UniProtKB/TrEMBL annotation:
Regions crossing the membrane: 46-68, 80-98, 104-127, 139-160, 166-185, 217-237, 249-269, 276-296, 302-325, 337-359, 371-390
Annotated protein name in UniProt: MFS transporter
Principal subcellular localisation of the protein: membrane
Pfam families documented for this protein: MFS_1
Highest taxon of the lineage: Bacteria
Membrane topology classification: Multi-pass membrane protein
Coiled-coil ranges per UniProt: none
Protein's organism: Pseudomonas wadenswilerensis
Recorded GO MF terms: transmembrane transporter activity
Amino acid sequence: MFMLFKAPASRRFRLVFLATALLGFLAASSTPTPLYHLYQQAWQFSAVTLTLIFAVYAVSLLAALLTVGSLSDYLGRRPLIFTALVLESVAMLLFLQADSVSGLIAARILQGFATGMATSVLGAALLDIDREQGPLVNSLTPLLGMASGALGTGLLVEFAPWPLRLAYGLLLGLFVAQALLVWHLPESVSRQPGVLASLRPALHVPPQARAAVWRMLPVNVAGWALGGFFLSLAPSLAREATGATSNLVGGGLVAALTVTGAVAIYHLRLRPAGQILRLGTGVLPAGMLLILLALHRGELGLFFMATVVTGVGFGASFLGALRSIMPLAEAHERAGLMATFYVLSYLAFCVPAMLAGWMVRSFGLVPTGEVYALGVIILCAVAAILSLPVRALSRG
């Protein structure tokens, strides 16, 4: 394997390696989703505790993005990728040893920090290699990663031994192998002063990208809020509303959302960014209306169909947001802007899901799901209204 790196790695191979690394981090992030109901059965914790476990991951990820998110612009890409892989490997070991809620929380905290570090540096490294294909890979890989993590874990739980251990063991092997290989990749950024200053929590948005960030923000918030709900409470919601008992339901729902989003991204990749954002703004609320109908009827098939429709809007909003802002950044600004994008996205990802967890305690799971769906619809309506005056400016 190491013979592949004796000469400078080819552009295609570097692109594949970085995309695979990013896919691994995002697969690991969704791996616990199909296991949550097993953890709940084993350790008897509530929906509030479930959203806490989900939230500490997102908060830790945000902390990484705000502090070390732009560090690779100053130290280089390889040291940060290696560090993230080592931290993620340790997190997998913590998952393997977890025997209580506190152990699971500790693993999620470390995993969140490693993932936050990885998403910004890997995203920037992909753009270093290819400014045209980089945004596409950055859009597709997280969705495919979340799909493979959730669905793959669901399949392992259903058909393989060691349901709470096997997926983490396989991921640990992947991350160790990638950590050994990363040093054989060429460095794409030279060191520069300002390392300590870059560690101060801040959002780095180049002046030329600020207007685009504001234009993409409303629909991006709606899309990521939906993603946070699907990775935390949606599997439990589907089970309660439809009576389904299969271990594949949770992973299948996440996969339906993210794979459909990835397919949408691929088919929309040549469209103007503004057009893609408008499509996401229109399709997301349509999918949420179908989810409300599925909850009312208690039909699992309709729930999956609604998830597929919603996935189109999810993918469109994700690609449109990235395509709107990332090509505007210079090489030394990319990691900082990528970190800012993920800070804004993960705030939308975790805060509404945390609020939903608290609502479940007072109102129940199904009413909370209905309120959440209505909230996403309202967000999309606001996004559509706010985009009206600047449509002529957002066509590319």
